[in-house]
């Protein structure tokens, strides 16, 4: 989950550090697209880019692809979609950074139509996209500040303000029903992206509960369950009626404690509406595996473009999104309308967040 949180906030890092990043000398830079336009192009024959009559997806991961977590979910979702399409997936996990380039070349030699990088730690594989061995290969890469855009790859990113504003709105719907105006946000390190997430969450709540307040606690660690429980208990003692455990491995410990106090709870990235121990009231979905699966749907339709950063838009793309686990028809309709307004551009999440300082 910590990896999911990092991937979710990649867009923030990209915006902040873009001026410091330069393209690799061997890469072909991609031009900057004007708002509302695209400079990317689907590869001829997509998804069978190399024209050999079959579709092969190659996945490289820096982590254990049997970890029951981020790295495995990235591969599992690819395999599920590929199986339905009759495609083949070649996967390799625990790839050392020093072997990334060689591993990518090996996938191209095995006639992979797409090379997908599971995490930006393996950015050293990307120069292979410029080599003859990979000339007929599409590339899917999670966006990060240290991954420059080129014509040969598609970068995948999102806007954290969107999901977190809607997460707050969903929490606000439930807080209204419970007549509570105080919420809590428990997270790990006090970093730019956790502070941005906290602010957007509060802005979303205030769309419905204008007098709402938010108690934010930085434990310093996404995975320390003891610290998460301590922070959650402290917030419950202050009377919060909703708690967002914006955590990794410590999510369930914090949520279970929030459940005992019947506080509203939200997920940090995945759909856990079916979970009963602990239970969640809202699923906030920004799992990188979901983005990859959505990209494969575009790929199957011949619409996945290289040379662009695909910013997944809430209200436009399947992910990111937010759903109430047991919302009433009226609550569900209000949430759907709010999401649709963001998708249409009627609501600007960044502007809503800025109102907090006005």
Automatic annotation (TrEMBL):
The keyword Amino-acid biosynthesis does not apply. Residues 1-18 form the signal peptide. It comes from the Bacteria. This is ABC transporter substrate-binding protein PnrA-like domain-containing protein. SUPFAM superfamilies: Periplasmic binding protein-like I. Residues 54-313 form the ABC transporter substrate-binding protein PnrA-like domain. It comes from Actinoplanes cyaneus. It is found in: Cell membrane. Residues 26-47 have a biased composition (Low complexity). Pfam families: Bmp. It is a lipid-anchor. Belongs to the BMP lipoprotein family. Residues 26-48 are annotated as: Disordered. Gene3D superfamilies: 3.40.50.2300. Its main location: membrane. Keywords: Cell membrane, Lipoprotein, Membrane, Signal. GO terms for cellular component: plasma membrane.
